[in-house]
Amino acid sequence: MTADFLLNLAQAIVNGLLTGMVYGLMALGLSVIFGVMRIVNFAHGEMMVVGMYLAWMGFEYLQVSPLLSLPVIALLFFGAGYLLQRSLISPFIGRPEHQQFLLLLAVAILLVNASLAIAGPDSRGVQMESQFDSYEVGPLVFDAVRLHAALAAVAIALLLWLFFTRTRTGKSIRAAADNNLAALVVGLDVRRLYAFTFGIGAACVGAAGALMITIIPVSPFLAVEYTLLAFVIVIVGGLGSMTGALLGGLLIGVSEAVAGLLLQPSLKSMFSFGLLILVLLLRPQGLLGKGSQ
Amino acid sequence: MSGARLDLEGVTKHFRGLRAVHDVSFTVPAGAIHALIGPNGAGKTTIFNMIAGVFAPNGGVVRLDGKAISGLRPDLICDAGVGRTFQLVKPFKGLSVLENVTVGALHRKPRLAEAQDSAAAILSRLGLYDRRHQLAESLTLPDRKRLEVARALATEPKLLLLDEVMAGLRPTEVDVMVGFLRELNQRTGLTILLIEHVMRAVMALAAEVVVVSYGEKIAEGTPLEITRHQGVLDVYLGEQEEL
Amino acid sequence: MSFVRRLAGNAPPRILWSLAILLALLLVAPAVLGKYWLSVLILILYFAFVGQAWNIMMGFAGQLSLGHALYAGLGGYIAAGLYFHYGIGPWAGLFAGVAVAVLAGAIVGYLGFRFSLAGVYFALLTIAFAEFTRLAFDHWQWAGGSGGLFLKVEHATDIVNLRGGPVLFYYVILALAAGAFILCRALLRSRLGQYWLAIREDAEAAQAVGVPVLRCKMIAIVISAALTALAGVWNAFYYNNLFPETAFAMGRSIEITLAPIIGGLGTLFGPIVGAVVLTGLGEAFTDLGDVLRIPGIKQIFYGLALLVIVMYRPAGVWPWLANKLGLTERQS
Questions:
Q1: C209·B104 Cβ contact <8 A
Q2: Nearest to residue C18, comparing CAs of C323, C322, C331?
Q3: C144 and C194: one domain?
Q4: A223, B88, C178, C297: most buried, per Cβ within 10 A?
Q5: What is the pLDDT of residues B183-237, one digit of tens each?
Q6: C84 is in which domain, residue-wise?
């Protein structure tokens, strides 16, 4: 092992951690929704892609940096998620899984093709001024764009943490995620809570999209990949566990980056899926999940 | 169909250090009806689950006609001749009443037509024949309980485990079920072990009663002896009105 | 004849007559239909066939697989690869393709069922295996890697090597679809089929009445994988090309699930009705898309149609249709 190699490895891990934070924020949305409603959002990657497109449009047409349009996008996503839950998803809670799957599949098809119809099939990227800036810490290079995205993701995760631990609504959502039945018994307004939760989940993924566009360009075909990636992350971290989703994001971010360095870059997701299979078999509740299914 | 003898020898079960059942032994002779009673959480259903193979005991042995069956899979234990009902009824909701019982009958009669005939016969004995084309999910609770019994009987067991089949039935319905079980036992010699809170049914059916509390057997005897047993009375102090 | 009589069982004569007439019509269809309508019919039969295969897993045994592209892809790739490299015809090659798919199904099933993964977790396991295989085939040179595997297009009919025009492929897929329909009917009227339904409804209760749950689930996934692999072989020789990006894609897996879900899960006619509805919608929207010239517009209409169906006919189109026609399909 040469020093060169170790440096490359360390650099890959740094990049993986930074991207992994954004992954974690995206997966957090999926996890929150599943934890509370027991609904797997099969349209998650499509929502991510819509978030990326919105941020791209803000940048392209209004010259607003994605980091600045992020709050607006998150708010829009919250509202859209709230309404989506209230109107379409609500009747499907507790229904057979294949019906929920079909419903969200239809939503996914609509979202991704609406993006395609509006923005076309080409990749759309954002050329930030900080594109080529970087910070050097010792021998390691922190890509400015990536670092900003990761810091923003951390900040949002912190805000969420405050929301979930300090506010009444947040605590109720956590109670519902921990124990569905208990929340019902305690008499929380479950309908409102569900809609609120879906809004939060959507806001997470919308915000993650706004950050992701600064790292890589968007195309409609990324949607399925992100849906799968979010699944992998939450299963590895523990479906329904919020810290699990964030840590899962870091883990997958790092493992992708390292696999990309050691193996061919195109084999990196194979590594993630291998990890997913192992976790499903050996610890289906996820690394941080508790109890049995 | 004839009955089999059931022996529990020092059966023990822990769940994560929690002692659910400890060193319980008793025998139900072939062709007898015995009852297993005790307060909620005493370990009755855990004992049933060990006999039926849902989980293996940590210690001790369950024997059917002298052959050890503990640790076998539930379907193999059904094969050996144990039929059971579930305390919280588990009908195949999306299937018809006839199909529910046919699944049980297929176990001994692999051909569908024969299994359907035998299922229909059992349904008419339990008064469910007229509902045979209804979906199981549309049945009332008493009918679901009857369906559980019918489905278990369809597997042609030598030992029938009944987990609170009287709970939720009206007194007249209890009498009908008691009559049915007694007639079944006398005609076929089927061995029956029942968990029951409805004392009226226990008194009417069981030759002997085993009482468990906190996972241990605290008394065993005829229903009359049991009602006079001081330890049992202590355990049941809170529930005495039921006795 | 006794087999036919047993198969017919208690089915009403009007259904049997309708089926016989339908089959007769399908048999003469190529003589009457033009190229376009024949290709539409081929598509319908293909989706009815794979739908029937998937329905065995989900509709009968209640195990949600979202990775069935794995079996279709393996079957197609193995048979096409054997033909491409060694000139081994698909009638022999399909045995190898089916064997590999069955092995894959057995592995996925054994791991999933042994570790008692259920519902979404099992579905994710099936997706993971399909994706894993997709990436592996991207790098497997024998199978052409990510550049794909191409069979030479030949127009002369050569039944031995399954080369020829649409009519040949039409009759093959018709035979497969009809065969799968009969097989599923026979399975539902067998002990195994009844056991599957019991497992679907409540596995614990099923095991208590003597159903060997693990074995029955394994048989379900193996039969389902074998049939799906046959569809894959047919697909490979019909389209003459295979890419990991499409053959093992999640989109392919989802496509397989749609006809039975839309048509009516667990019913015999569901996959067929679903295939007609979906292919019909797909073709109609393609025409509309050609007129409107907006990218993605076809899929938007398709998504809307799915949304409407799942909201208003969540149990599928066929149970509702059967009710309207005065036929209530009982499942035995």
A1: yes
A2: C322
A3: yes
A4: A223
A5: 999 999 999 999 998 888 898 999 999 999 988 999 899 988 888 887 777 777 5
A6: 56-248
